[in-house]
Amino acid sequence: MTTEKAEKKPELIKVDIARPRTYKWSSGKYLGRVYKEALENKKLVANRCPKCKELIWQPAAVCGRCNVEAGEDWVVMSDKGTVVQYTYLVFPLWDPHYGDRLANPYPTATIKLDDDGVFLVHFLEERDPEKLKNVKRVQAVWKEEGRGRGLGDILYFRTIDE
Ligand SMILES: [Zn+2]
How far, in Å, is the centroid of ligand 1 from the Cα of 69? Predict the structure, then answer.
């Protein structure tokens, strides 16, 4: 036996999902310079504070140490450096910005760049856990194609003999 209530079916509506859209946004004058130099010249740049003379990484309008306007004294930094520490993860990760699955396992290192003492965090090419223990000197390996992601234009840092 059916009741009037049971005979009523829920009203279904159809919702069309819009196709994913690409976004464009300004990275700003300072960070934009990082993207531009990486894209066009495979270079890492930072701006220098006029007061303390330290490089500001990542480039910014104001020096966080001195609280003064940083200006545009641009410096091309070395893409060689020394590994200060590394992390060796053994579970999968996804790039939060682009959704790419990162290699597994992959080592991430804090690297002190030559000359100006800027630290940055990036991947190491070396994945052998035993060899990683001895990685000291590294150099950036830049993508040949598909650049435009700032630091992401560097594939990884390769061990160099020096
Ligand atoms: Zn300063």
Answer: 9
